[in-house]
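Shift notes (night). Ran hydroxyacylglutathione hydrolase while the centrifuge was going.
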Amino acid sequence: MHIKTIPMSWGKGDNYAYLVIDEKTKDSVIIDPAYIEDVIPTLSPLVKSGEINLTAIINTHHHDDHAGGNRKILAEYADKKLPVIGGKDSDAVTKTPAHNTGFSFGSIVVEALHTPCHTQDSICWFMQDGDQKVVFTGDTLFHGGCGRFFEGSAEEMDKALNKTLGSLPDDTKVYPGHEYTKANARFGESVSKSKGVAELVKVAGANEQTTGKWTIADEKKHNVFMMLGDAEIQKATGQTEPVKVMERLREMKNNF
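Came back to this:
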């Protein structure tokens, strides 16, 4: 499995689209290709040269900065009759796999992990190719942070991060929907002086793009939204019950 990161709307939304390629068959999927002006220059030469066989559009959720380019991609490659695989509210969606079900392309096995909160149709996509394991988390899990609870609750985000994603293999690499690591690290530092958070601050400060640098195991050490039982974080929030800690952390981050 080869992952090609495509930065989009850089300096504004700092979004990521991802092209995931099965190196054996050339079968590929494009994840969250919202801004066609940023995606097509990377995608089209590979499609036209036959270096990849584009098989699907995948969305992590319905917001325009993730699913807003679906119809333009469909029109650009109309001959391929691409399916749009994502949550029920994504534009032009044709397939919504149930939780813990999925599909394959080439030798890559894909599993849909429903993580409602940021939006109720949020899906994280776990992919495995042999020993290589990755998860595309959209606006649910960021490096060192999480998405706003636009359509959900602290209880839902706790379940999404600390149960659904937290139960993935520790060596699963994380690919979020935005580059928010610097801001997340600064907030984390305000509520935790742990070694994990300090290292996150250091790496974030030295890199413009950090997607894929960390694993689920790393997030459990430096992402304060996945450290709800930590005494220092509980003290900072004034709460001890996990959902209440999550709720207060999000309130604090919103106003940070």
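Residues 1-94 form a domain with the Metallo-beta-lactamase; Chain A fold (CATH 3.60.15.10). The radius of gyration is 18 Å.
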